[in-house]
């Protein structure tokens, strides 16, 4: 069942209407506030009308299609429940019409409602709607010359088209009833649904007709004059419409026979019909004009009336263009019609088959065959000075001339290309592009992971790294610090890094180190505070700092990733970067330890200066490799020099480069350093020279292919690289990186964090050490003295709560919390940084140097024992082993001076034996007020200043290292300690101690004992020493 909504042609506001059944057929009535139902038309009123007689299930309402005048009006949400306004009398009156359709009609109605193409349309300017059977392919053909926005399907007329009847006559009721009977007779011929026609209120129709009259006149006079005359040429099978001035549209009675729709002017008047032939061309309907126009379109006829002549241009003087406007070839952000012929030519040269894509790079190493490094005597006359070069066109000694020329030409192509367009094409063309920075700060971190794996983890797992030794590394010219973030992620706090880069805008962004926490990474900017690697004083100060913090050995490896913008000068990037090349290599020779490694970024290696620098590094290391990792974009000149196994006698080469840097700092363009090694010397090194040329040729070819590929992607913005997703997944898997996205660490309350760290063992936090007295000394520490380790502390009976020994937990950087009175309080009185997920048992100590007025005090955190260090649970380890890890942990956290951070130290643990009084030494010193105090020295480290630090002890804490039923004794014959099981009588020397004899953190802490010495008047050090000696020397084991 369908219906039509009347509206005016002049796009006046559409009046709301409500469907009310009248004489068996629903009709449209003007909206009235008295008949208001939820303020809008409700489909359920019509749907229920059919449901009552046809037992249909209520269907989901069809959607409206708003008219042009309603396009900006928001559609109202129609109510799912409506009031059935159909009265019983009206339902009974329509039974006679409904019963005739209980058979085929019921079936057809359900089929039509299930058709997704069938929908109710609401068009303001003369609607005319057609619905089709389920088997009908719906084709809407709109004749724009009709005053009724008519939609029909010519190809499916023969299959049956639902009839729509708009009547303005007074006798519409009789016509409706006759038409309904006719539909009952013709339903077997393919018509669907019913023939119910709608009555339009006379006043509403009168208003509508008054608007349509001028439209009819214009319509009949101008728009159809020629086309109506061509009906003689139409075939008999062509469907036609009969249109009367009264506006009545109906099907011809003989439609089923001749397959046409006649448009009659009136039922009483027999004027000649005007026929319209609709031709379906694809989804577009055109008006066929026929022979009367000689095959010319209406637009062409209109142009002829205005004086147009074929073959001549438009305008008074025929100055208009003769050729049609070509299809726009606009590319990306370019102007319309703008093109780059050189770019088009380059894109045609790109051959996808030449591109090599692989997960594992081929690393070609060049081994140093010389047994000694270069000396000052050998290099004293090697340097060549000359005018500064500003081109590399003739630099073909270390690369094929054709490759150098093609690289320069390929780069030049993009000089005039919009940078945004080029970057987008580069992103789409690179098969490794979607790897990006993975979960790190930037792409540099993934580059380092790529090279580390390609070199079999040369950097993060060096062969010269000893057990329980920190991995020392340096990151030079590498802000914002992607290289370091990767190393810290891989090694956690077991690596200590030193950063040296330009300050401010190019500085390290430690706050963005989400993957690898930066507490053990320390930045340095030199005495001038600018981080300039060219400055010789900065270089020397950085070397001194490294040697101090690495016990005079140097770092295990150094990374450098320096670069700067050379926009518009890409072809001479090598010349502009020569001093940066040199200084990075110079610093590496100054700070890398013997056997260490070095990786640095380079660009083109075509000039003698660059070739000579690589040669000098080749002579200073056991092996070198020039590689371009997958994570480096294939179209740029970037490559990396990897040097492995630094030799010990490289001092002369370092001094030589140091002297060259001083010359370059003069910026004398007439006396620029052109060569570091004479060409004659390089020619003698045939193996090195062949390696360099082979590397330049191979990388140059790959770069040319990458540049041509970008050119092709610039020309065709529909091209894309389909392998990007697979390359990301496979590469990350090969590099042993998780395929994750970068996320900011979530905030967590300390109460929730501690539960996550130690699970259900948080009751241990509130334990207080047992007080040592004369009464319990024999039952506690004297029962087995060798089981205990002790350390002097600053925690006393009257010490402030925030200075007493307790637990400290860190959630990263400055977010450190102290456990006081069963709650976690953030530390505000002490500037300290600890890695996230750290839980230690420690105390705050006031460290002092010198005496009297020269005294200097600083606060420090002294760690007695640890549960978790930087996410690493060490609670199940043996107490001395935990103590060694704590020392390593504190050394990694020690920041270079000057700084305003509190120091973090590991308490020194002493065995409780007869010589305890010699190990815990007490000295009397004068404080600022000349008041004497008993002080205890703090063992110095290589990082301490010359003055020995000390503090005022207030107690001694004892920690048990063996687990019951094991006890430790000392053999007099072997002078070695051993453990004995009191239950099984099993004994083992400490060197072969079973794990069951080792006390874990919980057992050690829960059995700790505190002795408030030296202020305990009942128990002195002398008395304790006597007890210990009597116990130990009297034990016969």
From TrEMBL:
Location in the cell: Nucleus
Single GO BP term: methylation
Record-linked Pfam families: FtsJ, G-patch
EC number: 2.1.1.57
Molecular function in Gene Ontology: methyltransferase cap1 activity; nucleic acid binding
Domain of life: Eukaryota
Membrane-spanning ranges: none
Biased composition (Basic residues): 56-65
Biased composition (Basic and acidic residues): 31-54, 81-91
General function of this protein: S-adenosyl-L-methionine-dependent methyltransferase that mediates RNA cap1 2'-O-ribose methylation to the 5'-cap structure of RNAs. Methylates the ribose of the first nucleotide of a m(7)GpppG-capped mRNA to produce m(7)GpppNmp (cap1).
Protein name listed in UniProt: Cap-specific mRNA (nucleoside-2'-O-)-methyltransferase 1
């Amino acid at each position: 069942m369908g219906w039509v909504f009347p509206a005016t042609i002049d796009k006046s506001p559409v009046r709301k209407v409500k469907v009310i059944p009248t004489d068996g057929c629903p009709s449209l009535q003007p909206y009235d506030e008295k008949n208001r139902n939820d303020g809008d038309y409700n489909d359920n009123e019509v749907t229920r009308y059919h449901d009552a007689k046809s037992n249909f299930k209520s269907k989901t309402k069809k959607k409206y299609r708003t008219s042009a005048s309603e396009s900006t009006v928001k559609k109202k949400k129609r109510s799912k429940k409506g009031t059935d306004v159909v009265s019983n009398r009206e339902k009974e009156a329509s039974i006679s019409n409904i019963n005739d359709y209980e058979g085929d009609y019921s079936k057809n109605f359900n089929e039509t409602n299930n058709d997704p193409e069938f929908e109710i349309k609401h068009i303001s300017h003369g609607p005319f709607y057609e619905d089709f059977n389920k088997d009908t392919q719906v084709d809407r053909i709109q004749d724009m010359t009709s005053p009724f926005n008519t939609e029909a399907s010519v190809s499916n007329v023969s299959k049956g088209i639902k009839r729509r009847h708009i009547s303005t006559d007074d006798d519409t009721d009789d016509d409706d009833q006759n038409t309904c009977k006719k539909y009952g007779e013709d339903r077997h011929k393919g018509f669907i649904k019913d023939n119910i026609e709608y009555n339009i209120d006379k006043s509403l129709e009168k208003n509508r007709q008054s608007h349509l009259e001028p439209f009819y006149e214009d319509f009949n006079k101008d728009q159809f004059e020629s086309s109506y005359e061509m009906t003689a040429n139409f075939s008999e099978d062509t469907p036609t419409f009969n249109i009367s001035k009264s506006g009545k549209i109906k099907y011809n009675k003989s439609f089923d026979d001749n397959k046409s729709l006649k448009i009659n002017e009136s039922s009483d008047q027999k004027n000649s019909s005007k026929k319209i032939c609709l031709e379906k061309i694809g989804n577009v309907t055109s008006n066929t004009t026929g022979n009367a126009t000689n095959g010319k379109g209406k637009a062409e006829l209109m142009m002829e009336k205005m004086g147009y002549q074929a073959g001549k241009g438009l305008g008074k003087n025929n100055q208009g263009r003769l050729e049609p406007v070509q299809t726009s070839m606009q590319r990306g952000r370019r102007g319309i019609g703008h093109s780059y012929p050189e770019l088009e030519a380059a894109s045609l040269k790109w051959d996808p088959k030449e591109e090599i894509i692989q997960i594992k790079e081929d690393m070609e190493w060049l081994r140093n065959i010389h047994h000694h490094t270069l000396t000052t005597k050998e290099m004293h006359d090697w340097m060549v000075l000359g005018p500064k070069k500003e081109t590399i066109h003739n630099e073909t000694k270390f690369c094929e001339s054709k490759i150098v020329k093609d690289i320069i030409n390929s780069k030049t192509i993009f000089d005039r290309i919009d940078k945004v367009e080029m970057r987008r094409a580069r992103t789409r063309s690179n098969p490794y592009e979607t790897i990006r920075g993975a979960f790190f700060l930037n792409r540099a971190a993934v580059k380092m992971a790529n090279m580390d794996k390609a070199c079999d983890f040369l950097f993060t797992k060096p062969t010269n790294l000893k057990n329980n030794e920190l991995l020392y590394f340096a990151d030079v010219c590498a802000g914002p610090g992607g290289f370091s973030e990767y190393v810290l992620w891989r090694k956690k706090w077991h690596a200590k890094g030193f950063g040296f880069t330009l300050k401010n805008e190019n500085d390290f962004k430690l706050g963005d180190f989400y993957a690898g926490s930066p507490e053990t990474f320390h930045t340095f900017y030199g005495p001038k505070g600018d981080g300039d690697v060219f400055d010789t004083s900065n270089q020397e100060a950085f070397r001194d700092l490294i040697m101090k913090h690495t016990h005079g050995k140097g770092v295990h490896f150094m990374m450098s990733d320096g670069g700067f913008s050379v926009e518009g000068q890409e072809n001479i990037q090598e010349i502009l970067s020569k001093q940066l090349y040199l200084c990075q290599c110079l610093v590496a020779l100054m700070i890398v330890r013997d056997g260490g490694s070095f990786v640095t970024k380079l660009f083109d290696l075509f000039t003698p200066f660059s070739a000579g620098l690589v040669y000098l590094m080749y002579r200073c290391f056991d092996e070198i490799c020039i590689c371009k990792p997958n994570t480096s974009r294939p179209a740029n000149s970037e490559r990396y020099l990897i040097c492995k196994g630094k030799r010990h006698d490289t001092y002369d080469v370092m001094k030589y480069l140091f002297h060259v840097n001083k010359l370059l700092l003069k910026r004398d363009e007439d006396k620029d350093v052109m060569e570091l090694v004479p060409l004659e010397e390089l020619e003698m090194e045939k193996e090195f020279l062949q390696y360099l040329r082979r590397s330049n040729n191979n990388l140059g070819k790959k770069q040319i292919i990458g540049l041509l590929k970008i050119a092709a992607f610039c020309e065709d913005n529909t091209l894309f690289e389909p392998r990007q997703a697979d390359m990301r997944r496979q590469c990350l898997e090969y590099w042993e990186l998780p395929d994750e996205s970068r996320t900011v660490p979530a905030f967590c309350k300390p109460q929730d964090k501690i539960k996550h760290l130690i699970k259900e063992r948080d009751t241990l936090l509130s334990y207080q050490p047992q007080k040592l007295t004369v009464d319990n000394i024999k039952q506690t520490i004297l029962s087995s003295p060798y089981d205990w380790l002790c350390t002097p502390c600053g925690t006393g009976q009257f010490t402030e709560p925030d200075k007493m020994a307790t637990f400290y937990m860190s959630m990263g950087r400055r977010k450190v919390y102290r456990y006081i009175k069963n709650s976690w309080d953030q530390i505000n009185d002490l500037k300290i940084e600890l890695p996230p997920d750290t839980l230690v048992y420690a105390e705050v100590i006031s460290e002092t140097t010198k005496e009297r007025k020269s005294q200097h005090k600083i606060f420090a955190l002294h760690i007695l024992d640890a549960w978790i260090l930087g996410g690493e649970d060490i609670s199940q380890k043996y107490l001395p082993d935990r103590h060694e890890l704590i020392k390593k942990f504190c050394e990694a956290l020690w920041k270079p001076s000057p700084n305003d951070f509190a120091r973090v130290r590991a308490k020194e643990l002493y065995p409780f034996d007869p010589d305890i009084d010699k190990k815990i030494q007490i000295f009397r010193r004068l404080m600022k007020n000349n008041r004497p105090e008993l002080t205890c020295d703090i063992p110095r480290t290589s990082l301490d200043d010359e003055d020995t630090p000390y503090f005022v002890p207030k107690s001694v804490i004892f920690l048990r290292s063996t687990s019951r039923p094991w006890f430790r004794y000392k053999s007099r014959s072997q002078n070695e300690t051993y453990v004995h099981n009191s239950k099984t009588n099993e004994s083992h020397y400490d060197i072969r101690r079973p794990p069951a004899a080792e006390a874990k953190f919980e057992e050690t802490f829960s059995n700790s004992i505190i002795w408030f010495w030296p202020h305990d008047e009942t128990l002195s050090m002398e008395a304790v020493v006597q007890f210990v000696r009597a116990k130990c020397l009297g034990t016969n084991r």
